[in-house]
Amino acid sequence: MNKQDGREKKLPQLTKKVIGKVLKKKDVLPDKEDAGIPGQELADKVISKMKSYKEDLSHLNIIICGKTGVGKSTLINSVFCGNLADTGIGFPVTSEIRLFPDENFRTDIPLRIYDTPGFELDAVQRSSIKEQIKSVIDAGNGNDDRCIHCIWYCINTMASKIEQEEINYINELRQLTAFGSDGEKRSVPVIIVLTQSIVKSRADQLTKVIKSSDSLANAVIPVLAREEAIDSRTTVKAFGMDKLVEKTEELAPFISDTLTSVQIVSLKQKQKNCRSVVNLAAVTALGVGAAPVPFADAPLLVSAEIAMIAKITVLFGFEADKSVMMGILSSALGTGGATLLGRTVVSNLLKLTGVGAVAGGLISGSTAAVITIALGEAYIQLLSMVFRGELKKTDLSSDKGRKKFRQLFKEALKTSKDSNIYKSLSADGSSEVLTEGQTIGDTQENK
Ligand SMILES: Nc1nc2c(ncn2[C@@H]2O[C@H](COP(=O)(O)OP(=O)(O)O)[C@@H](O)[C@H]2O)c(=O)[nH]1
Ligand SMILES: [Mg+2]
């Protein structure tokens, strides 16, 4: 069988099976110019790829409702990057929907929050607000960048009770439908957010009441958007916003990339979606390396990895400039920077970890997949440390960050051959397209 044919047939099939929709196939197709390029240029390529991924993100559009003072603005500022909304007691009650970020105040955050005036307004105003909500939804219909993805209806957990009127209002919101460019009508999901849930038992009780009422809300999520100091010794920690993000993703999966990028509360959600990116890059590496390629100029592998690093950076919402990216790339990949993974660096690492070997300067598809998984996983771990505040962004271009990334990469190499991703790739019958016994543990060095 012609190897090239086999590879081309195999790849889309594997891709469909293993991958999310995060990377597009065109992103990982060969780019010969990636061979042997210097580190500077490599960083440029990652940065320009990041830019194009960012530009490709459609806006996430959320309508947020609830009485004045329930904590809508505080919630927005805690869940999303960019500190978008004004907060504070006594913000003037208006009867118009407000948009964050303001259309005049351009940001490059692909997010629109429609902040609706309080439910406490009189019946006439309330019905006018509902009309406004409808027109916001209508205005977005048919346009993937503008259509409304979710309504967050906020209720203060410490409020004395929920009025039946408010439940009715929520039910009316649940009747609203929206659609994107595919024209397929979907009801707009409504999540009831129980804000300022300082007392957990109260939040649990309220959740029960709402769930047992005739409310049609898709979910009820208690949150505390900012920690609350009860007294000088007792502080209740913020919680629940990660659940809110995860539920929103579940109800509006088609906007998952953007949500992942702009939210700053669920590390789990970021990691999960980044791992889909790594899977795709690994599948590509497997296909590319299936016919053993001279490693020092493995352009195909390099483009898959450039795409992977760029996409993960965007999904983390991480703002990396060239110097930071250079620091990151050179740490795992050697300061020579001639290729994404310098041959010497890789041979040494592979020997060290017993993953495989670069036999006569060639690597097999499965070795390429292992390296790619390890690189992706190490990068996810590195950005996770920044997310948790264990590393500063400035550390990434310093010795500290470089050492850390090298260490993470080595550890990831040791484990990636045992990873589920790798196993599922192998179990897919991909060894069929491998040649010359270039599978893991079956290299010339081991023979
Ligand atoms: N500690 C703490 N304070 C909150 C929280 N949510 C709201 N607040 C406070 O409640 C007040 C009103 O919040 P704001 O977000 O402006 O309410 P909005 O009118 O619904 O936008 C502000 O003083 C906030 O500091 C929270 O989760 N934790
Ligand atoms: Mg507000």
From TrEMBL:
The chain crosses the membrane at residues 277-295, 325-346, 352-375. One of its GO terms (molecular function) is GTP binding. The keyword Hydrolase does not apply. It is a multi-pass membrane protein. Pfam families: DUF697 (PF05128), MMR_HSR1 (PF01926). GO terms for cellular component: membrane. It comes from the Bacteria. InterPro entries: DUF697, GTP-bd, P-loop_NTPase. It comes from Ruminococcus flavefaciens 007c. Keywords: Membrane, Transmembrane, Transmembrane helix. This is G domain-containing protein. Residues 62-165 form the G domain. Its main location: membrane. It is found in: Membrane. The keyword Transmembrane applies.
